[in-house]
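quick one, 479 residues, struct below
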Amino acid sequence: MDPLIVIIALGAIIIISHFLNIYSENTGVPSVLILIFFGAILQLDTQIAAILFPEWILDYESTHNKSWEGVLGADNVKANLLEILGVGGLILILLEAALDLKINKTMIVSSSKAFFVALFGLLGSSFLMAYLISSIFAPELDLLHALLYSVPLSIISSAIIIPSIESFNEEKKGFLIYESTFSDVLGILMFQVVVGSLATGAIMSSGEIIGKLVLSILFSIIISIILIYLFQKIKGHTKLFLLFSILILLYAVAEKLHLSALLIVLIFGIILNNYKSVFVGFLAKIIEPEKVDAIQDDFKMIMRESAFVVRTFFFVLFGYYVSFESLFTGYGLVIFYSLILFAAIYFVRFILIFPTFKGRYWPEVFLSPRGLITILLFFQITDQYICDMTWHNQAEGVLLFIILGSAFTMSNALIGVKKLEAKKLKEEKLKIAEEQSKILNKEWLKDAHNKQMEKLKEDTIESNDKFENNEDIGPQQDD
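---
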């Protein structure tokens, strides 16, 4: 394939994604949803290439003695690319969100509520779906093997929700960012516990899990302070991507050590954005605010732009990779299973959100998309953990259905929010117009009253003048 054609295709995807973002901001439809469908259309690349470049296809097939498998080749190549883009995208999106969070009383309350909603939402959804899978859908699976499939499906996607809530107020936005981030962190940790338990045959104790979390938090705080201190000292124009590269390296090392790698990214972003609250006492003496402010501003811009590019290619590639035929595997059984699991997810979420927000549940209960982490963890279910191949094949369709279904549900809620905002804006404009009209009416009445008073004064003066003139004429006639 001509490299220039590939470059044109990549550029076109970025341009299309930019306009999809604008469309998403105006309508509330998540751009991710459209990117997945756009990727699905690209599955026709072999047919399109056969029409546009028939000679090249024939030459390729005669040279390699096999049919052309598309731009990216075999499915295992696509899966590897998905995993790499997914990890990069997750780090970038999480950093972008963390760099907008402020440490204050509202944030502490919001993050505490978000942590417990994320924790109990993950546990409730995972065990309820695992029970349904092991008892109804795939009786060959025990509860632990069923958790391998239910845990990824229980994780809220920060990669989808964070770009979709830009217009929300700070309280709602903060809660949803923290909830989705905690869901990612706890979900990955829970998945690692399940995989470790299957590999060793022993379930990890709660003490070990809490110990790993505490160790991850302490390590994240220390490494974040060291990085910020060191990078304010570096001179040059390439330090921001150097900083990002170090964060990727730390993420990979933490993953290998089975620590909560996402916490490193989240805590670093929060500390960088709130360094004045962290670097206090003797730490305040080692920091140069002007340099850190410059790093902060530039880093925010680079993360935002990079996250947009990586997120675009990840979800287009996912749409390109996944088979929509998997939805109809088993004569509609996949859709039936998906609907039951879908209902279970939102049932658990409703009973958590309703009391958390004191009886108010809209739109938060519907802002629970599945996406990037769900996909990445699903690809980590290797052959050694697969007990029922029929269910595993059906699970791919269930995964796709729940990702698309949760995105559509969120889209509907966001469109409702947009309509409500538009209605409120219209009411506010109408109220302002009415107030202006009242003011104008008052001014008009005042002007009319003043004019009337002036006229009365003029009439009075004129009457007085006439009366005086009549009095002057009267004596003259008597004479």
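Residues 6-417 form a domain with the Na+/H+ antiporter like fold fold (CATH 1.20.1530.20).
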